[in-house]
């Protein structure tokens, strides 16, 4: 990956995109250190200690890069936008009007994106109100008020700042997607997790369990190797193109392949599942008297692991079905004179691709669920504590691989020699 980045800096246009992406991510990290107005500085240190654990607050604080514990402008992170995207994608399946919009090309997608933005504003405002009262209750229980003054004006100001910060993050993520390298939302989550790497290394080094200190690096390397192996795994379906006469020219037939990846959904199902499973314990933290719900769905608990595994498998099938349509692929092959050897064009080709895709998606979904759950189970069994879990490692490695592919594609598109010769 380092060789790809170094080669990319030799191309002026890609260099501009990399620098633009780096500047946006730096502004995002800077906003995670700027507290909202009216916050008492004496209570910030106490909040950072409270949010440094392995409960749901520590888990959400990890995905915001520490902004939640600082009550920063970007304390909500990008999770409201991800939740809104999940809701709109689920409604697309059950709502005929949204399904019709999704099939109208760029115009329909632009309208769905607009609905997603509106829903993000509503979700972020509701979540900001809940966080304000959560911060106040935690400060009162500790004897040090978090807010210097707590009235209607100050509450509205904090809610407005948190909501505006989430909307600004959504806009920055879309800017990276349009003008930068890779998916902006994924890169922001990547930056949030990686920013805690020094704390994770320090927690591993100061751990009193010597067996844990020795085994953890090998375990992390094994998980990373497994992620890279599965992410790059694919089945290549041979495709034969017949000779065709186009005007006065005859196109020669050729043979190529249709690549079907084992994990076509990438890290999106893991992010979706993490955001969905963060909802019940968040509600438990916000509502008075619902502490049992938060402890029951703790990120290190069995209920959270089982729920996350189920949602990862479901979202893997769902996202794969959304991104790859066997019927459209069969129609395109038939339209351009292509066929799979031994399979009739049209409906038999669609059924053949659908059958292969279903058999490939199952091990891909199990792989995602295993990588997300097994490290947490191992840490629970050994009573050890580590900053990163399987979900964090999976997101970091998956986003890094996708970004490397984006850079390699940019290099190849400009006829520049990359490190893959």
Strand neighbour order, sheet with most strands: 4-1-5
Q: How many strand segments?
A: 5
Residues in helix, %: 55-70%
CATH topology of the largest domain: Preprotein translocase SecY subunit
Strand proportion, as a percent range, falls in: 5-15%
Q: The biggest beta sheet, please?
A: 3 strands, antiparallel
According to CATH, the homologous superfamily of the largest domain is: SecY subunit domain
User: Any idea how many domains?
Assistant: 2
Name the average pLDDT: 77
Uncertain ranges = none
User: How many individual helices?
Assistant: 18
Provide structural commentary.
There is one protein chain. The protein folds into 2 domains: 1-195, SecY subunit domain (Preprotein translocase SecY subunit, Orthogonal Bundle); 198-388, Orthogonal Bundle (Preprotein translocase SecY subunit). It has helices at 2-8, 12-31, 41-50, 56-63, 79-94, 96-102, 106-142, 152-179, 184-194, 197-205, 210-232, 268-277, 279-286, 291-296, 302-323, 326-335, 347-382, 390-413, and strands at residues 234-241, 244-246, 249-251, 255-261, 338-339. The strands form 2 sheets. The protein has a 3-stranded antiparallel beta sheet with strand order 4-1-5. The chain has 18 helices and 5 strands. A hairpin with a 2-residue loop joins strand 2 (244-246) and strand 3 (249-251). With 421 residues, it is mainly alpha-helical.
């Amino acid at each position: 990956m380092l060789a790809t980045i170094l080669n990319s800096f030799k191309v002026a246009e890609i260099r501009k995109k990399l620098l633009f992406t780096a500047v946006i991510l730096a502004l995002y990290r800077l906003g995670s250190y700027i507290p909202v107005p009216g916050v008492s500085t004496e209570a910030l240190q106490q909040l950072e200690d409270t949010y440094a654990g392995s409960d749901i607050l520590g888990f959400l604080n990890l995905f915001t890069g520490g902004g939640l514990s600082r009550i920063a402008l970007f304390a909500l992170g990008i999770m409201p936008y991800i939740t809104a995207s999940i809701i709109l994608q689920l409604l697309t399946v059950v709502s005929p009007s949204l399904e019709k919009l999704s099939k109208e090309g760029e115009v329909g997608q632009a309208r769905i994106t607009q609905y997603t933005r509106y829903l993000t504003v509503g979700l972020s405002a509701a979540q900001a109100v809940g966080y304000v009262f959560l911060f106040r209750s935690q400060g009162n229980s500790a004897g040090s008020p978090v807010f210097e003054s707590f009235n209607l004006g100050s509450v509205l100001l904090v809610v407005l700042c948190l909501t505006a910060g989430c909307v600004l993050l959504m806009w920055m993520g879309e800017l990276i997607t349009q003008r930068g390298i890779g998916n902006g939302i994924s890169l922001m989550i990547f930056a949030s997790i990686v920013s805690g790497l020094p704390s994770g290394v320090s927690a591993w080094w100061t751990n009193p369990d010597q067996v844990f200190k020795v085994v953890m690096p090998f375990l992390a390397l094994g998980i990373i190797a497994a992620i890279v192996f599965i992410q790059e795994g694919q089945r290549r379906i041979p495709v034969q193109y017949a000779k065709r006469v186009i005007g006065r020219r005859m196109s020669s037939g050729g043979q190529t392949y249709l690549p079907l990846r084992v994990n076509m959904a990438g890290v999106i199902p893991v992010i979706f599942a993490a955001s969905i499973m963060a909802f019940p314990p968040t509600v438990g933290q916000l509502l008075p008297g619902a502490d049992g719900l938060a402890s029951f769905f703790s990120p290190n608990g069995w209920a959270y692991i089982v729920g996350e595994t189920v949602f990862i498998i479901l979202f893997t099938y769902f996202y794969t079905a959304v991104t790859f349509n066997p019927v459209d692929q069969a129609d395109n092959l038939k339209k351009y004179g292509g066929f799979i050897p031994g399979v009739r064009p049209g409906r038999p080709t669609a059924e053949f691709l659908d059958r292969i895709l279903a058999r490939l998606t199952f091990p891909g979904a199990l792989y995602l669920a295993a990588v997300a759950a097994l490290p947490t189970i191992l840490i629970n069994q050994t009573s050890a504590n580590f900053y990163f879990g399987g979900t964090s490692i999976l997101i970091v490695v998956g986003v890094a691989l996708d970004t490397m592919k984006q850079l390699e594609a940019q290099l190849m598109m400009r006829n520049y020699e990359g490190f893959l010769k």
